[in-house]
């Protein structure tokens, strides 16, 4: 049964990619927290982990990418989070994932990865602010949204450029061979 | 970069500007007539902890709760978080706040500081009704 064999091979590859990407995303957020970059806007960050989420969405199916987002958020919560901060990051991560997935489905022809990563970053901020405003029962936290939007555009461009270079280089690896046809 | 990206960036910058520009203009005009005293409301875990009047004199407020330790400093009619033992230190990046609506949040410690006008402030609805 060669077809079954091939199928399980593909499933195995997917699992491996999800695991590797989640691990790299966690390392990237560790690296990011080590960079002493004063953004002067509270809550703003580079969002390097978003590189992996977007690349994963590009190569794999949405449910695999979803798995990867969950894994990444859980792992980072275990490493430097508390329970309450986990709730905020999962909210941001899910918002960001949903927005990027939607755009990849709808607007792939009109937007490049740069536009999608900008939306992803901003959706992450909005998700976290929404979680915080529900938690504290105040809408005043949205005071910081305009500044976060501007920062989101800048970091989104940086992340998008990284993804733009990452996708062609990963495509050369044999591990990703089976997934190129799906996305083309 | 496609055209859609540039449109998207433009749209977001415009939205952000719509919110930011009135705030800058408002900030400049309010400096001319330093309108009334402002207060900072400090809440921990949704419960009011303390309110402080924002005066020109320096004053430090220590907050020790079951969630952790934070140190606030009042000076020059504003307030600032100067120390905290939370893991992420995001609350320290809020910096010095002095305007109405300004907020400092420390998520891990469930701490929230909000600035409100004490009297006759434009965006204070209760004062208008009075």
UniProtKB/TrEMBL annotation, chain A:
Bilayer-crossing regions: 12-31, 43-60, 87-106, 113-135, 141-167
A Pfam family assignment: Hpre_diP_synt_I
Keyword Phosphoprotein: no
InterPro entries on file: Hpre_diP_synt_I, Hpre_diP_synth_I
Keywords: Membrane, Transmembrane, Transmembrane helix
Source species, domain of life: Bacteria
Protein name as it appears in the record: Heptaprenyl diphosphate synthase
The species this protein was found in: Fontibacillus phaseoli
Top-level taxonomy: Bacteria, Bacillati, Bacillota, Bacilli, Bacillales
Automatic annotation (TrEMBL), chain B:
Top-rank lineage group of the source organism: Bacteria
Official protein name in the record: Uncharacterized protein
Keywords of this entry: Membrane, Transmembrane, Transmembrane helix
Transmembrane segments: 6-25
Entry keyword annotation includes Membrane: yes
